[in-house]
């Protein structure tokens, strides 16, 4: 099992899920669409998604989710080198970096 934080900002990312996944919403409103049905998560909500589903990670604002995935090598098995929708500019910044970016 592995896990991490995803920092998402106004995205809709289609995804073929090749692992079992648990998602915990930490900030904002996160929407997961699976088989045409949407599940809305707000801070404190948890979702379990079994592997072999076509899903989409979606949010209309900034949100932070924690994910736990099994097996731990799911990215290698899927042939991925990155996770779509997770861009460095969406990551939290120090106050100094935020001020420089806004100038």
Automatic annotation (TrEMBL):
Residues 87-103 have a biased composition (Acidic residues). InterPro entries: EutQ, RmlC-like_jellyroll, RmlC_Cupin_sf. Residues 83-103 are annotated as: Disordered. This is Ethanolamine utilization protein EutQ. The lineage of its organism: unclassified sequences, metagenomes, ecological metagenomes.
């Amino acid at each position: 099992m592995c896990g991490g934080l995803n920092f998402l900002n106004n995205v809709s990312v289609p995804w073929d899920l090749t692992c079992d996944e648990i998602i915990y919403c930490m900030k904002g409103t996160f929407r997961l669409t699976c088989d045409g049905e949407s599940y809305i998560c707000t801070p404190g909500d948890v979702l379990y998604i079994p592997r072999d589903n076509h899903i989409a990670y979606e949010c209309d604002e900034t949100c932070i989710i924690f994910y736990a995935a099994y097996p731990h090598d799911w990215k290698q098995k899927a042939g991925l080198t990155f996770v779509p929708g997770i861009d460095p500019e969406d990551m939290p910044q120090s106050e100094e970096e935020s001020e420089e970016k806004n100038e």
